Amino acid sequence: MGAAKKIGRQTIAFANPPVILSAASIVGPKEGEGPLKDYFDRIAGDMYYGEKTWEKAEQKILQETMELALSKAGLKPADMDFLLAGDLSNQIIAANFTARSLGIPFMGLYGACSTMYEGLALGSMLIDGGFARYVLLGACSHYATAERQYRFPTEQGVQRPMSAQWTVTGSGAVVLGKTGQGPRVTHAIIGRVVDYGEGDPNNMGAAMAPAAADTIVRHLKDIDQPPETYELIITGDLGKYGRELVIRLAEQQGIVLGTNYQDCGVLIFDESQDTHAGGSGCACSATVTCGYLLKEMKAGRLKNFFGLGTGALLSPCSCQQGESIPGIGHGVVVQAN
Amino acid sequence: MGAAKKIGRQTIAFANPPVILSAASIVGPKEGEGPLKDYFDRIAGDMYYGEKTWEKAEQKILQETMELALSKAGLKPADMDFLLAGDLSNQIIAANFTARSLGIPFMGLYGACSTMYEGLALGSMLIDGGFARYVLLGACSHYATAERQYRFPTEQGVQRPMSAQWTVTGSGAVVLGKTGQGPRVTHAIIGRVVDYGEGDPNNMGAAMAPAAADTIVRHLKDIDQPPETYELIITGDLGKYGRELVIRLAEQQGIVLGTNYQDCGVLIFDESQDTHAGGSGCACSATVTCGYLLKEMKAGRLKNFFGLGTGALLSPCSCQQGESIPGIGHGVVVQAN
Questions:
Q1: What residue ranges are annotated as transmembrane (chains A, B) (predicted)?
Q2: Helix, strand or coil, per DSSP, at residue B146
Q3: What is the CA radius of gyration of chain B?
Q4: Which CATH number fits domain B184-335: 3.30.420.10, 3.40.50.360, 3.60.21.10, 3.40.47.40?
Q5: Coil, helix or strand for A99?
């Protein structure tokens, strides 16, 4: 067994790439009408999912997704060494209460919408480092809980500018294992916080794009390969405008991203759904990765991808106190078995 | 180089125990009048610390503490492989903005008041696992930002029950290294979320005690040693009543904790300071560990300790929706060089 290798400044190449033993996704009704609807394991009939509040619905969705991932892998909570999870709600309550139900040693993460990929990167390190045989990880978000927490009371019906994105309701979860059958996480890269001064909570794609470009460029320079080395490079939730900005920012640093560069937020909704710039939220990259990407890989239609969770480190309090919105992007490389 | 070993269900024994190369602490004015005042590196003259808001003061305190830890270790941000940090503010803004300033690849953590120890445990795994040579980690809290976020507007002057604790203003930070001189982190244990149904945000010691007892008992059973194996077992911020509850809960599970069991929240203030049950907040365990414990160790007066960060996974939103307050406890064992 060799040791993990650091390539360049930030990229980690795993000595024994951890295996994605299973993945699960549950989405809300709107996502269940979108172009990726056939890829999700369950589609909620409404935003309450049988609960009395949106927050409880969000928690239930995360917990069910994790239970589904465990059951697909044929494993139980007691088999897991660690649970890594987070969400957008203050004090990551969906993750905390899910951890309470599952009883697995738990590390709470907060990477805003990048949390799924923070978990994938970290979980892979914990396995490759010899600290775990199995790690359960996931992230969730809910349109209505996020909207009223970050922006306006949902009932107020404020008009949304065209740069706004739509927080995805749903959750994705993965069981990572030291050995077994499935795609492997070969590389991970932890992002830096980057801030170009964007201050509009209705234009988060622009706030996150510089951090996403920083991580993509850094990773490609670390491995000294062109973007075409991956069949797909995909960011988490930059939306239409954020994606265009990443292309421009990467180009300024000598990296020309081609048609193999996509964004989960662009894919999850179509124009007719009136979501403006696209999807966002922890569940955007989580459900597209656990639903679409990993199922395409299972079907043999995708050989590898470099996925990047992108987070806007937005806080209503910091915005009110005049701060801009910094972003972050964490990435992992997944290779089909 | 051997591989890390899992002992029992949850305890990890590091193959090459990471070194605490430096530690720094800054506290607020009240903590600077308490019994541990001579151990802290800096004491803020007032709660604003030269900033316009309490939130900005909190962020500045965290950043200065991290810069101080780096400078004590003779290292720069660019030398660090990872930054691990979190705090109590919604969206961990103090940590995010500190990460923006330092430019180090950043993983945001949320473990409520256990965050310092979540970082110590995780940072040690990242180093022992071969993913990092240096990790900078820390946590902070601020009485006034926490009070107005979690309980009542600070200006309202609500009377506090005797079970209430006082959120510590301050920050602790540590530079962990793969090699070098200093105390070593020999073991880590990641806690499970435990909930006995306590629902009063003014009695967080009771909410956290079951999780703390769970981790302490589990660890001692994992290593199959009595509590006296450590010179000191210390919890993060249970306060007077929470500490007593841990002693009772451990006893029910066959572990008799003696006078070598203490709590950071009990030590940081004295009776005359009118803090009721004691200190709490991320900074409670962070400043007592980085100030008092590691300085006592440096002076040769403390050979080892099992420290446990304790977190109440409290959310104003979940409390309003009728939920109880689950707790968590993460621990590390530190041995003098």
A1: none
A2: helix
A3: 18
A4: 3.40.47.40
A5: helix
ipTM of the predicted structure?
Answer: 0.97
* Backbone conformation region of residue B292, classed left if phi is above 0, alpha if psi is from -120 to 50, else beta: alpha
CA B226 to chain centre: 24
The topology under which CATH files domain A18-177 is Peroxisomal Thiolase; Chain A, domain 1 (3.40.47)
Domain(s) of CATH 3.40.47.40: residues in chain A: 18-177, 184-335
Q: CB within 8 A of A28, min separation 6: which ones?
A: A43, A44, A47, A61, A142, A143, A168, A169, A170
- Cα B122 to Cα A125: distance, rounded to the nearest angstrom: 10
What tens digit of pLDDT does each residue of B72-114 get? 999 999 999 999 999 999 999 999 999 999 999 999 999 999 9
CA distance A214 to chain B (A): 11
Closest CA to B84 of B134, B42, B41, B130: B134
CB B40, CB B90: distance < 8 Å: no
Cα–Cα distance between B216 and B234 in angstroms, integer?
Answer: 10
Pairing of strands A42-43, A261-263: unpaired
CA gyration radius for chain A?
A: 18
Q: How far are the Cα atoms of A34, A43, B157 from residue A273, in angstroms, in the given order?
A: 8, 16, 48
Residues of A in contact with B103 (CB under 8 A): 192-193
Taking phi first (over 0 means left), then psi (-120 to 50 degrees means alpha), and beta for anything else, what does residue B198 get? beta
| pLDDT bracket for residue A2 (50, 70, 90) | low
Give pLDDT, residue A3.
73
Mutation for testing the B interface, residue in A9, A82, A187, A318 having most B CBs under 10 Å = A318
CA nearest to A127, candidates A80, A62, A76: A80
From the CA of B202, how many Å to the nearest CA of chain A?
17
Length of chain B: 337
Give the integer Cα–Cα distance in Å for A204 and A241.
9
Rounded to whole angstroms, the Cα distance separating A22 from B18 reads 33
Amino acid type, B309: G
Residue type, B72: K
Please judge whether B130 and A316 are an interchain contact, meaning their C-beta atoms are less than 8 angstroms apart.
no
Instruction: Enumerate residue ranges in chain B where pLDDT < 50.
Output: 1
> Closest to A99 (Cβ–Cβ): which among B125, B193, B330?
B193
> Which amino acid type is present at position B231?
E
CB under 8 A, 24+ apart: contacts of B245-250: B245/B205, B245/B206, B245/B209, B245/B210, B245/B213, B246/B209, B246/B212, B246/B213, B246/B216, B249/B209, B249/B210, B249/B213, B250/B213, B250/B216, B250/B217
Indicate if the pLDDT at residue A135 is higher than 70.
yes
Interface contact flag, B93 A317, Cβ < 8 Å: yes
Q: In A, which residues are within 8 Å of B111 by CB distance?
A: 107-108
